[in-house]
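[Meeting: bench + compute handoff]

Bench side (C.D.) handed over the final construct sequence. Compute side (W.E.) agreed to return the predicted structure before the next meeting so the bench team could plan truncations. Sequence as handed over:
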Amino acid sequence: MVTTEHSEATAGRPALKRGLFRGDRIIWVVFFLLSIISLVEVYSSIGLYAYSMSGARPTGLFLKHLLIVLATYVVIIFLSRVNYRYFSRFAMLGYWFSLALLAVMLALHGRWFRVPVIGQFQPSEIAKVVLIIFVARMMALKKDQAKELGTFLMVLVYIALVVVMVLPENFSTAALIFLAAYMVMLFGGVKRSYWWRLMLVGVAVVMVAMFVMLKTGQHSSTLERSKTWVNRVDHWLNPNPDELSQENMAKMAIARGGVFGVGIGNTVHARLMTQAHNDFIYAIIIEETGMLGGLLVFVLYSIFYFRCVRLAWRCKGRFGALTVAGLGTVIYLQALVNMSVAVGVLPVTGQTLPFISYGGTAYLFLGCALGVIQSVAADVNASEEKALVGDTKETNNIDYNESDS
């Protein structure tokens, strides 16, 4: 029987334990708002992209995006109903599967497959999610040896294999994957001295390599896209204000938006930007809704990450806590990178704005990540409810090594 104390304790908790939308209520609200913003802004900004594709119509592309958004809702709802410990069981298989896909792409010198209806399918988007879950599993299994150098190096090798496969075609995604997975290692208990030393060495190597290529004009024959990376950094460091580039038009869109914006549908610069619906959609949001709208989007992502951190803290299982922290980190970092590019703080990276940019595999697989997060949230809610009604026996028997189950 549920006591009065239990009713009062659970009445104000922002969580959903039953029904269609399970998990953390606030995370659901954030996703709903981001998806609404996505539909409005994609519809407003997709015109030029549709015109650049022979035979495409803005309405048709928008309907495709709408279907992707709706499919993402279905994916999140489905995954939120799965016991999150099952994701640990299939983490190893998913890791090697994603690695095989990346190897095929590397051999073909491509970045994506063409999938009917969906369009471009990027294996790196799978790897972005699967690697976090896999590293969380490894750190949960090795919790007693987390501070040992051998554990640090072993997990680092698994991360490096994926990063090396992604790097030749997409530097920013490789860096994002590495940083998020590396953060899971830190959360998992590795020695901070190992973490900081490798991080400093990595940053130094990248900066030296970029400096040398910028000064000498020489590009790596192994990394075919190194010329693109260097050009992007060079344009960022030495911008040409007279050039009609995506970066300059994004800045003009932000300046035109001011504080309150010019109104939904009144964008001018989206009519001139081929990536207004994708990489630079944040600039269009600010143009139409002003700095207040841009701030709202930033706050929504920050609330999402705060909820993920809080959920990880509440989770009794080590695997669940590390998975939520890692997946939350990769989504939040990608959002920060995209927004930073739009306002000119970072050079162009090609990273989309999670749950807002025009949909595809990136939208769907980030939805998978959100579904896993909600699965952990649903489990945490159920465990806390049992504890509140006095059924602590089952709750206390949840082992931190649930990745073995």
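W.E. noted at the follow-up: Residues 19-399 form one domain. C.D. will use this when planning the next construct.
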